Structures are given as C-alpha cells and as structure tokens.
Amino acid sequence: MNAGIEQGGRGPLIERIKAIILKPKEEWPKIEAEQSSQGDILRSYVLPLAAIGPVATFIGGQVFGYGAFGFSYRPSLMSGISTALISYVLAIVSVFVLTYIADFLAPKFDGTSDRDRAFKLVVYSFTASWLAGIFSLIPSLAFFGLLGLYSLYLLYTGVVPMMKVPEDKAIAYTAVTIVCAIALAIIIGPITAAISGLFVSGPAMISDRDDGASSGTLTLPGGGKIDLGNANKMEKQVEDAVSGKSKPIELDQLKELMPKNIGSYKRVAIQTTGLGALGSSGEGTYRSGDNQFTLTVTDMAAAGAIAGMAGAFGVAHNREDEDSYERTGMVDGHMQTEEWNRTSNRGKFGKVVDNRFMIEADGSAESINQLKAAVNSIDEGDLKDLAG
C-alpha cells in the first residue's frame, strides 16, 4: 500500500496538496480516516516537500547570490551544499519532534493522544510553509516566504478532527503548540551552527520496514546514519522537559556558572534568557585590552535530543588557508567546532556536552587557546549536577 495521499482512491501528491491548501476543513476528516503508516507518509510526502526550501535556497544562492546596501555575497559550493543538507535533515527531524509535542499536549486540552494522528497533523500542516520555500529560488523574493504562515491556519483547522481537541480549546492548543515550535526553532540554532561545516554529496536515502512503524535508517552519503527507531529516545527527552521532569537550569544558576575572570579577561557584562520548559541561556562578555569575546552556555533541554543526531551525521569538516582554518567533528565524545583567523585574531570555539548543553566562546583573543580555556572554564560536572 502506498502513502496515505494515495489511499482509498486518493489522487497523487499534487491533489493532496491542492486539497489541504484550498479546502482544509473538508480534507482533514479524510486524512484522519486514512490508514497510512508514518513511513509511507515520510517517504512520499515529507521527503519531497521538505526538500523544496533547501534546494531552492541552494540554487538561488549559487545563481543570484545575496546582496544588500551595495554588498554582494555568493556562498561557496561546499557551503551551499552543506547548508542545504543540514536544513533538509533538521526539517525532517523537526517533524518528529513537533509530533511528540503535539501528541503530548493533546490530553492537556481534553484531546486524545494518538501518535499517528499527531504525525499527520504536523506533516500536512507544514504543507504551506514547505511550498513557500520555492520563493528562496530568487533571494529577492524570499520575503514572500511569509505566505508559509498559512500553515498556522492549517494546524488550527486540523486539531479538532485529528487530535479530538474540543472546539472551544482549539485556539489555546494551537497557540501553545506554536509557542513550543518557535522556542524549539530558537534553541536549535546552536546545533545548526555546530554542524555547519558538514559537507557530503548526493541525496539522503530512506529505508524502512513495511510494518507501518516509523523505523528504518536515514543514510547520509559520505558517512553516518540516523536510525529512526531511536526517535523514542528523543520523545522521552522532549516529554520529560515539557512535563517538568527534566527542568532547564535556572537563570540565577546560569549566572553563577559564569566566572568573573578567565585568565587576564574580566567579565564586563552578563545576561540570561529563559525559554520556559524548553531551555535557558546565559552569556558573559569578557574583555582584556583590545580583545573581547562572549562566553555562552545554552541549556537546550527538550531540543537537546537533536544534539545527539550530530554524531550520527558523521560530521567531519576541515578547511585551512594561509590566513584561517575551520574544524568540525567529534572530539572525545563531544561535537566540537573551531574557527580561527590568524590575521584578525578572531574566531570561536564550541562544544556540545551531554547531548544537552552548548558552550561557546566567540570573539577576539591572543590565540584560539584562550577561547578554548574560556569554554573549559565551565565545569561539565557542574552542568550535569544542576540539570539533575
């Protein structure tokens, strides 16, 4: 049996897209009644549509480049391919993470918990935002990508038939789910930066069993596999954070983690940011003479599960010229990124700890070793103790 979009006499991909965009209230009950596996939907709907934005952005960047205020920039082929691949993989991973969030929240609003229906709700709600990615083909038209916000309406129209949330609580359920999605997107930032050096060629391949379970392997050419069966581990970490079992570090505790002095550098400013159950972040600014860098500790909480994916990607990138170098890879069990410009004496060094915390120093210093010392000034054991 093929994917849900072809179940029960349904038409091909284009017909499902037209129906969910133009007549969502009529289409959601049909989707709810379909007996299609997550693997089928992933292969025939998610994989092709999620690729639109990354591919369009890559082509647009290579052909037209980017420009503003008289400056122009065209990313290198390596940079373009790696960014597109990272965006594609994270888009797929985000579908599963948001599925767990939507499923977990449903009973809180008198709805019904059902993983398969939550998966369908998220996937088909994303249709508009995925289609809007085509505007990235011409960077100057990327603004029209805002049309993807129609996905918010698709989500709202789907919560009653899919998750059985009462109509009088549909708006609240939608709002909370959207807030969680936004917070998740913000927290994912450090992970995207940590693996931005990834460069592999060729398309990602998906294989799965034919038993209806969301399992199988997402294989990345060039090395690395993602076992979709491990999604349950991600689910538990997300649910523990959202339910309060796994609480992010308190803002006052983050302040205490920031040393007042790191070698000759003195802390001149500090700030913290809280994102509710989904994480927190602390940032200290350090100065010594003309040099200054920021030291950031981010507790990714629920999104930390995604950090564990980085090792599975087989990330290993090295670039060096006479002025600078970049290195990304696994070092002593940590995903680590390092960049340094010998001419400007600027760079950054960061690492992911315990698949949850991102520690990064970014700025100017006498050497990269000073930025490494700043990162290592945050005791990993203290982080784990505070997280419980």
Please give a structural write-up.
The structure is a single chain. The protein folds into two domains: 4-243, no CATH class; 251-387, Protein Transport Mog1p, Chain A (3-Layer(aba) Sandwich). It has helices at residues 13-22, 24-33, 38-50, 52-63, 77-105, 115-125, 127-132, 150-163, 167-194, 231-243, 251-257, 304-312, 368-376, 380-387, and strands at 66-68, 71-73, 205-207, 217-219, 225-227, 261-262, 265-274, 280-288, 291-299, 316-320, 324-331, 334-341, 346-353, 357-364. The longest helix is centred in the N-terminal third of the chain and has 29 residues, at 77-105. It has a nine-stranded antiparallel beta sheet, sandwiched between helices. Strands 3-4-5 form a three-stranded antiparallel beta sheet, with no helix packed on it. A two-stranded antiparallel sheet has the order 1-2. It starts with 12 loop residues before the first helix and ends with a helix. The protein is built from 14 helices and 14 strands. Mean pLDDT is 74; it is low at 1-11, 194-232 and 305-315. The protein is globular.
Key features of this structure:
21% strand, 2 domains, 388 residues, nine-stranded antiparallel sheet, single chain, alpha+beta, Protein Transport Mog1p, Chain A, three-stranded antiparallel sheet, 14 strands
> Can you give the helix content as a percent range?
40-55%
- Compute the separation of the termini in Å: 46 Å
Structural class determined from secondary elements? alpha+beta
Helix count from the secondary structure assignment: 14
Order of helices and strands: HHHHEEHHHHHEEEHHEEEEHEEEEEHH
How big a fraction of the residues is strand? Answer: 15-25%
Largest sheet: 9 strands, antiparallel
The backbone outline, from C-alpha atoms, is: globular
Strand order of the largest sheet: 6-7-8-9-14-13-12-11-10
| Mean of all residue-level pLDDT scores | 74
Number of domains: 2
The overall strand count is: 14
